[in-house]
Amino acid sequence: MTRELLTGNGAAALGAKLAGIEYLPAFPITPQTEVIETLSKWIEEGSMDCKMVTMESEHSMVTAAGAAAATGVRTFTATSSQGLLYAAEMLHTVTGWRVPFVLVNVSRGLASPITLEPDHNDIMALRDAGFVQIHCSTCQEVLDSMILAYRLSEDAGVRLPVIVNYDGFYLSFTREPVEVPNQEYVDRFLPPFPTNQPRFSADHPMSQGVAVLGGSAYSYFKYQTHLALLNAGLIYKQITNEFQILFSRSYDPVELYKLKDAEYAFLMIGSFSCKGKEAVDQLRAAGWKIGLVRPRLTRPFPMDELRKSLAPLKGVAVIDQNLSLGMGGVLHQETAAALYPLITRPILAAFVGGLGGRDISAEEFYSMAETIREAVKTGETPPQRLLYTEKENTDMQQLQRIAGTHTTSP
Amino acid sequence: MYRIRFHGRGGQGMRTASRILGRALFNEGYYIQDAPRYGAERRGAPIFAYVRCSTNPINERGIILRPGLVVVADQSLLSIPAAGVLQGCTEHTVLLINSKTPDTSLLKQLGFKGIILTLPPLTTQKDDHFPSASCAGGAAALLRIINLPALMKAAQTELSNLPLETLQSNLDIIEETFTTLSKQPTAISPDGPVFVESHNPPDWITLPLEQGGPNIPAIIGSMTSHLMQTGSWRTKRPIIDRERCNRCWWICNTFCPDGAISLDEDRHPQINLNHCKGCLICMTQCPTHAITAIPEHSNKTNDKEKSV
Ligand code: SF4
Ligand code: SF4
Question: For A255-394, which CATH class?
Answer without folding.
Answer: alpha beta
